[in-house]
């Protein structure tokens, strides 16, 4: 027999629902299945108020700005611990417009009053007909209200100090913090996630300097939450995080994608208009590392970009590649059946990268800094493409001079020192094919026997 939607909801939220509410909801379901619809609503009503109460109980001090003093709050907490008063106390706070921690809409207050009336009919009245539709409607209202519309002043503030303490102790990338954060998400209503993130960002921006480091730390947190909420258990939290990324003013979606490339397809599928901003952001990033390379690959794979745009990207992007990208490039070229290799090959990325290295690094560079940041790539293209006359000619011209890109010379010299056959091939092309002398080759700064103070 197929589960009732309330049973599916309980199963999904059993870790965060109070034990007493779980028992009451199970009694409500049993009554429903026995056609005892009045009892089903009475049990569900108590479970509903208890869920709200347990969320309120974690707040130790009166939330700011709601007009309640410490004495008022202590009185409320005392009533919540009184078996004879707690349910009336919660109901009273829910339908108030002032001096209440609950932030809800007027229509929700009216609905709560309505369902209280239905509950009273179920408990005391006999004339009004209560059917299965009433029970299912109340279950649906309860689920929608506690998951999406109930907000409590001070709820996020009550958990934030502990989150910050654990964050400071372990750091966001530790397994200890991830486990703790998962426990926090278990208890945090999805409609509170935006407030939680805003408050955490505020704390970072006030306590971590400079601002770019605070942004980096925040991106780490957002990525951790993104990865934790990708499973069905946290589906609502995941959707809330995606909404936050589109609506907040601290971190743009394209900035997040640069730090968390695995989010590319999900975010772009929801908003294709973001693609030009991603491309522009990619052009601004420096240095280019593995994450940026992954974003570039996602762009080549995207069905929302035209072929000409992809070809243009493959011509432009290699200019931004540096030593930081070597590890991912090596992984890609190690497997020619890898879709990433196929994409890069299709759009002639490797050829464009080779041309950039020869013209901007091996050829006399306009910027030694630019060339030195790509020193290991000069070796990489030898491994991938081998050496031709153009490469050797430009290398002889540049590295025969005293003024040359030092790190590039060092990388090539070390490579030739370890790869004798490659050095022999270089000399053969230089002397036999290009007409250089042995003396010319001897004085090259990339000669493995050339003495340089490294």
Describe this structure in words.
This protein is mostly helical. It is built from 26 helices and two strands. It has two domains: 147 residues; 226 residues, no CATH class. Strands 1-2 form a two-stranded antiparallel ribbon. It is elongated and about 110 Å long.
The number of distinct structural domains comes to 2
Beta strands, count: 2
Distance between the ends: 75 Å
Shape: elongated
Our count of helices gives 26
Which percent range fits the helix content? 55-70%
Radius of gyration equals 32 Å
Q: Order of strands side by side in the largest beta sheet?
A: 1-2
Structural class: mainly alpha
- % residues in beta strands: under 5%
Pick out the low-confidence regions. none
Biggest sheet details: 2 strands, antiparallel
Mean residue pLDDT: 93
Give the ordered list of helices and strands. HHHHHEHHEHHHHHHHHHHHHHHHHHHH
Chain-wise SSE layout:
Layout: H1 5-13, H2 19-33, H3 37-57, H4 70-80, H5 86-95, E1 102-103, H6 106-124, H7 132-149, E2 151-152, H8 155-170, H9 175-187, H10 193-207, H11 211-228, H12 235-247, H13 253-259, H14 264-270, H15 275-284, H16 290-301, H17 307-316, H18 326-333, H19 339-346, H20 349-362, H21 368-372, H22 375-385, H23 389-399, H24 406-418, H25 420-433, H26 438-442
Antiparallel strand pairs: 1-2
